[in-house]
Amino acid sequence: MAPRLPTLLALALPAVAAASQTPTRDVDSNTSPGFVSFPIKRASKTLAARDATVSLINEQDTSYLIELTFGSNAQAVKIAIDTGSDELFVNPNCNDRDFTQQQQEECTSDGKYTPSSSTTSNVTQETSQIVYGSGAVNIQYVVDSIGIPGASKNMTEVQFGVATESQDLNEGILGLGFGQGVNLNYSNFVDQLASQGVTNTKAFSVALGTSDTAGGNIIFGGVDTKKFSGSLATSTIQSPASGDIQRYSTQMNSLTFKSGSTSNKYSNSDLSVVLDTGSSLCLLPTAIVSDMAQDFNAQQDSSGLLVVDCDLQNTDGSLDFAFDGVTISVPFSQFILSAGSNTCILGVQAVESNSGITALLGDTFLRSAYAVFDQTNMKISLAQYVECGTNEQAIPTGSDGASKFTGECSSSSSSSSSKSTGELNRPAAATSIVGFVAGIAALMVLF
Fold first, then answer.
1. Per the database record, which ranges form the Peptidase A1 domain (predicted)?
2. What's the pTM value of the predicted model, to 2 decimals?
3. 323: which strand partners?
4. Could you confirm whether 311 is annotated as catalytic?
5. Which CATH architecture has domain 36-205?
6. Which of 93, 136, 173, 289 is the most exposed place for a label (fewest CB within 10 A)?
């Protein structure tokens, strides 16, 4: 088997114009529309009853889950979507001794796949290990059917992993990276969606939804033109460095802090970044994070996280991430995260330039962006996330991919709470969150 790929897993945090004329999706249709949509819902771990849709759940800013069915008897299992890895696995060890009782219960509630109860399963003799940014899993490969809500039929003979042993992982993971002939020697989930006709192309769009709205979706093979404003700015996915694997990497041109009359464009913020739904935080070079900490009057906790005054969540300001053709504005309210006990942190961690860790933009960035990941054309498309309804459309085949779509929302479509325009004030003293970090050790990215 090809080497399995490391990824930066979710860093756990507490409580989570003109458009194409392609017809919108009818989930009750017996004919596949060329895409399948999974609505996002911000909710607790417990799922509500569902009909023909699969909900993508923001697990208290920890990860985003979808529910699929496996095998001939449609065994329902919830798994986390991750654009930073390539493989699908289920059945993590819910009895990990490092888990709290709540983590064990949540893990168990995600469901379990039992190959022996499926008449279509084929348990192979092939095994592998996947090492993530936090945690690892040993897997045995199984071939079985996977049910896709909204599709006309199940996908058949899909290869995925069943955990035989895992550490520090309390949910299965759906890797949405590159499969057959790129990073793997077999067809992964994204490959199979296209090859079995569920989607027209190996592309999908992600709108995680902001922390103060309920909307959002992931659409395999399609886009929702009522989840963004302006045109989708498209760039080529960068080739990996020698010895590395293919990732969803693109060029960020600059990063600028804006608050009132203050504007600070960070030096050396023209850099390659990976877009990773599996990481709650952004990882950026130390020099940038140090300047950012100064702008926010942040104080570094002993854990390495940046503690800020929680009042800044209600202050008008943004971090503006500039790419070719688009600037994604991330409001302070989305970039500053509550960590309990009246403590707040910036949604970023520093990485040394010589550490070997790739700079990435995680959920604290992606919640303000609409992103299209197109493996067929090796493109990434970005626009500002805005919620103004639903209009799901298939991405056409051909070299243009999603680039022809224009968002139907105005930049002011989403309502926002009033923000203070006062000066940023440094906290009187650093607030320790060591206990918080100890409870969610996955915050520390290990390599």
1. 64-383
2. 0.84
3. 326
4. no
5. Beta Barrel (2.40)
6. 136
